């Protein structure tokens, strides 16, 4: 009969210097025993210098964190608040889910701030004013009492200090042309809308000044990982405001930043806008992969390829690569591609499951911008001579010229390439 093996923890003794691996670990213990035996805590031993290294490392981490906290407190103490103090009224154009969430957020920034939502639906307008609920999109969430609604564009825009534009891209030109007479030429527009105008390939930074007939209308693009429901629930996230006017970007940052919403600034308007538009198309592709049950490997490979395609086109258009890897690029892409709250991803899941696009769109009460944007993206790719296999496949599927199954086959048979 074989003798039983008693667990024995071995002391570590080395001559000369410790191996590099041990120098970077808190404690190294080698235990000779059966696989299921775990040594008692008081049996763990090691050379004193290794244990002291562990303590030194913890001290370094503690000091680094304390420095970070002190820097943050110092910065907050110096942060200006004059923009928020001066702001009396913010108007929100559009009564959809994201417009409503941002209206509620702005209203919570200051008790006396008037936030007026310009909505089309008189029933939604009444619900907001009488019950403080958007009955269509957030029936369970109470809005701050300083959020009011109107269907009168003139009244909504009167004396506004800032305008949050939350009308879907494809309807923005016509909508803005209809209210242009009431818009002050110096009113800053903060665009929440993501996408490309189908026939013109324009972004919101081009649509707004053209529709308002004012090429100098102040403009800011707001983008980043931000589902409306989570904003309504005050869950923490971070976004980017981009403007050619640095002072305006800083002012909007001051207006919107809070304890649960970080706001970074950027001058790369093109990068922020194109990333926000293209990620919706990529989200449809990610949904198709999920709907076809192609697995996690396929999902990761597809989204990685899609990120590269977005970077290729965006940089050709003049965007900074760092913008595409930042909050408004990779941050928003991850959220939209991987989370079920995404409208565009939902469209893709249902397409991958075999439903027709017409049936999907008929059943939705919100706009999935990626559907209209897909065709515009391909036109842009041709204009800038960029190959976008994944995004092109999405456009073909939406046009009913390619099935999801055939698209996967064609994409997998593309020439093997060298990564650059």
Automatic annotation (TrEMBL):
PROSITE patterns: NAD_G3PDH (PS00957). GO terms for molecular function: glycerol-3-phosphate dehydrogenase (NAD+) activity; NAD binding. It is found in: Plastid, Chloroplast. It comes from the Eukaryota. Residues 89-248 form the Glycerol-3-phosphate dehydrogenase NAD-dependent N-terminal domain. Keywords: Chloroplast, Lipid biosynthesis, Lipid metabolism, NAD, Oxidoreductase, Phospholipid biosynthesis, Phospholipid metabolism, Plastid, Transit peptide. One of its GO terms (biological process) is systemic acquired resistance. It catalyses: sn-glycerol 3-phosphate + NAD(+) = dihydroxyacetone phosphate + NADH + H(+). The keyword Lipoprotein does not apply. Its EC number is 1.1.1.8. Pathway: Phospholipid metabolism; Membrane lipid metabolism; glycerophospholipid metabolism; Lipid metabolism. The keyword Plastid applies. One of its GO terms (cellular component) is chloroplast. Residues 268-408 form the Glycerol-3-phosphate dehydrogenase NAD-dependent C-terminal domain. HAMAP family: NAD_Glyc3P_dehydrog. Belongs to the NAD-dependent glycerol-3-phosphate dehydrogenase family. This is Glycerol-3-phosphate dehydrogenase [NAD(+)].
